[in-house]
Amino acid sequence: MNASAPHLPALLQLASSALPVGGFGYSQGLESAVETGQVHDEASAARWIDDLLQLGFARAEARWWRIASDALRANDVATFTEINAQCWASRETRELRRESEQTGRSLVKWLRALPRTSLTEETLDALNALRPITWPCAHAAACFALELPAAHGLQALGWSLLENQILGAVKLVPLGQDAGQRILHTLGQRLPDLVADVLTGDAEPNTFLPLLALHSSAHESQFNRLFRS
Q1: What pLDDT, in 10s, does the model give residues 57-100?
Q2: What pLDDT digit, counting tens, does each position of 1-37 carry?
Q3: Rounded distance, CA 50 to CA 183, Å?
Q4: Is it true that the peptide bond before 192 is cis, omega within 30 degrees of 0?
Q5: Torsion of CA 39, 193, 7, 80, to 10 degrees
Q6: Sequence-separated (6 or more) residues with CB below 8 Å from residue 151
Q7: pTM (whole model) above 0.70
Q8: 151 burial type by CB count under 10 A (0-12 exposed, 13-18 middle, 19+ buried)
């Protein structure tokens, strides 16, 4: 899957850690896993992030993204709204729900500030009216607005997750920058196959991630913490 020249700027912008949605403020349970010693070195950090990539991204977030994207491409805002509601209801903890709400809302605000996209004002108004709009659905809308092919959009979604987790692990474990880059390089190579499986399969989103939910719940009352989630 090669990013063609016309799509490359939008792909880089959407996957950039400079995207102003606040994703850097969340660890998705990693901080609690470090607190309990489950993640304590490069190998255990790689296992944690790999599990989140394969189970949280490929089985859940990416599948929500795909069906939301399909609805938008069919100009079916009603179905998109229902998918968003189901995605929001799948968040098992207060922190995971607030993270998805805040990043999703910020991404729609970013979209509205762009000078020209493929989304009509009517559709933008409908997205803005969703209270809340979730991160996967907002991201699918952003990719549609920027005319990114679905495979490229999912690559950006997965890369954002990986990069945020690596940045969190470097601070929390702590890992050296070289260790973080090794994990990012290794796990980044898996993204194309995971994305291809999501796009060619028809499985429903599977959000059964009990260990993530437990660590996210524990993090809500963790005394010392750097991250909001």
Answers
A1: 999 999 999 999 999 999 999 999 999 999 999 999 999 999 99
A2: 455 678 899 999 999 888 999 988 899 999 999 999 9
A3: 9
A4: no
A5: -80
A6: 1, 195, 196, 199
A7: yes
A8: middle
The architecture of the domain spanning 26-220 is Orthogonal Bundle (1.10)
State the CB neighbour count (10 A cutoff) for residue 54. 13
Q: Which amino acid is at 177?
A: Q
Closest listed residue to residue 172, CA positions, set 50, 52, 47, 29: 29
Contacts of 133 (CB under 8 A, 6+ apart): 84, 101, 104, 105, 108, 127, 141
How much of the chain is helix, strand and coil, in % rounded to 5? 70, 0, 30
pLDDT at 213: 94
Size of the chain in residues: 229
User: Which of 68, 90, 91 shows the shortest CA–CA distance to 78?
Assistant: 68
> CA 108, 86, 190, 217 torsion: positive or negative?
positive
Structure-block tokens of residue 118: 């493929």
- Nearest CA-CA partner of 138 in 61, 212, 42, 222: 61
Cα angle, residue 15 at apex, residues 11 and 21 outer, rounded to 5°: 125
Q: Which of 108, 136, 139 is nearest to 124 (CA)?
A: 108
